[in-house]
Amino acid sequence: MTAVLAALPTSIPSPDQGVWNLGPLPVRAYALLIIVGILVAVWVGNRRWIARGGQAGTVADIALWAVPFGIVGGRLYHVISDNQLYFGPGGSGWAGAVQIWQGGLGIWGAVLGGALGAWIGCRRKGIPLPPFGDAIAPGIILAQAIGRFGNYFNQELFGAPTDLPWGLEISPVNRPAGYEVFETFHPTFLYEALWNLAVFAVLLWADRRFRMGHGRVFALYVALYCLGRVWIEMLRIDTANTVLGLRLNVWTAVIVGVGALLYLVISARLRPGRESAAELQPHGSPGQQKSSRRRPRLRGCAVRGPWFGRGCWVGGRLRVLRGQAPA
Asked: Could you give the C-alpha distances from 293 to 125, 228, 241, in angstroms and in order?
């Protein structure tokens, strides 16, 4: 037994590189993991959307809006909240601010930007946003778990020094000032990835157990992620702006998490249950929706005419379903 314990590793080694060159093309692990995460999120979201009664392909169509908005939002949040890295003394300036492949996406901005893009996509598809958020939420947290390994390859965003057996080895060149003598640090990327996987499992269980709807799965995802982010964020030693002695991301997690909890409780009281499959079907473009609101009687199947029958407006013509029209 002692020999077995002695053979176990005493730390987690870091990769020697995070970039591989295929000729003139640099292939970055960080970017690859983000792409894999997006594909997994769309795949999971599509399966859940179909299981709820939605149409196949809808999630992929809306992702074409949500993903670009999410990436831009995530980068904007990172640059604004850590602006000293780019515009402070010795900062990399605008050139560094746009180099997203070097790492640096703020999840809060990514969620907000992605939600804006999803709202636009849902509007164009003619489907409600809350059930779409419920379908995609587990996929998003799974994508975050995958994306966190990009920090592992970049040797960034690690925690305080530690002698625990799972301490992460960091190269001297990547150690922050004041920590040069330490060799191993808390692997916060791994903590967050494992936390996100646990949240993924809880979301699937809670959705199946309570038949959650009207955006409550998404709210639960936000609340649980914020809960984990608070304690993980407090382990990190990378440079960050602080407010009242706490890192900005801690305050953001607390405020957003409380907001998600309030939505969860209030929504459950006001709109219990889950949307029907019929509510997930596309209702046309926004312009078509306005048109339908102007003449609702012509689209329904309860039109009563002078022939004492009932009809339905189909293909631009009124069809009699019951009764007989006069000659």
From this structure: 17, 45, 50
Neighbours of 68 (CB within 10 A): 13
Least confident of 23-32, 151-160, 277-286: 277-286
75 neighbors 114 (Cβ within 8 angstroms): no
Name 4's Cβ contacts closer than 8 Å, sequence gap at least 6. Answer: none
Q: Do residues 181 and 206 touch, judged by C-beta distance below 8 A?
A: no
Q: How far apart are CA 242 and CA 134, in angstroms?
A: 33
Mean pLDDT of the chain, nearest integer: 87
On the CB side of 191, CA atoms within 13 Å amount to 21
DSSP annotation string for 87-136? HSTT--HHHHHT-GGGS---HHHHHHHHHHHHHHHHHHHT--HHHHHHHH
Pick from 150, 123, 119: nearest CA to 136: 119
For the stretch 9-37, pLDDT in tens is 789 999 998 999 988 888 999 899 999 99
Locate 286 and state its tokens: 């926004």
Other beta carbons within 10 Å of 177: 6
The sign of the CA dihedral 73, 262, 52, 229 is positive
CA distance 71 to 110: 6
Across 144-174, b (16+ Cβ under 10 Å) vs e yields bbbbbbbbbbbbbbbbebbeeeebbbbeeee
Q: Taking a C-beta distance cutoff of 8 angstroms, is the pair 29, 183 a contact?
A: no
